[in-house]
Design brief:
125 residues, mainly beta, Immunoglobulin-like, five-stranded mixed sheet, three-stranded antiparallel sheet, 1 helix, globular
């Protein structure tokens, strides 16, 4: 009886060790066509008509801290945020839930106020 159990466990061990381990495929996260930027630096919105939030591709040459501003139609800064970006494409989600319906501008600049890109969007209900 003991020999049978030992043989069974050894058989199971050999069988399971011979199986190839299947590792889950890690999906390659790419940039959607509607967010691709051909220049080395820039901003591109997923859509110019926004309700609650919108995805934004921010492409830069040098990693660091940058400033994104939301500016209203009268050129008044509504929101200003410092964000850490890596070199290349960065997908950022901008929350627009509290903004009233109107036209707005997004501005990307360095900490020394050098503007790297500007894009416009319309907040709709």
């Amino acid at each position: 009886m003991k020999k049978s159990i030992v043989i069974l466990f050894l058989s199971l061990f050999v069988f399971t060790s011979c199986l190839n381990e299947i590792e889950p495929e890690i999906p390659i996260v790419g940039i959607k066509d509607d967010l691709k930027i051909s220049e080395s630096v820039g901003l591109k919105l997923e859509t110019p008509f926004v309700t609650e939030s919108v995805k934004l591709n921010v492409k830069i040459e040098t990693a660091g801290i940058y400033i994104i501003k939301i500016i209203d139609i009268s050129n008044r800064t509504i929101s200003k945020e410092e964000i850490q970006l890596k070199e290349g494409n960065n997908i950022v989600t901008i929350n627009t839930t509290i903004l009233p319906s109107s036209a707005y501008r997004l501005s990307l600049s360095t900490k020394s106020n050098v503007i790297l890109g500007i894009t416009d969007f319309n907040k709709i209900q």
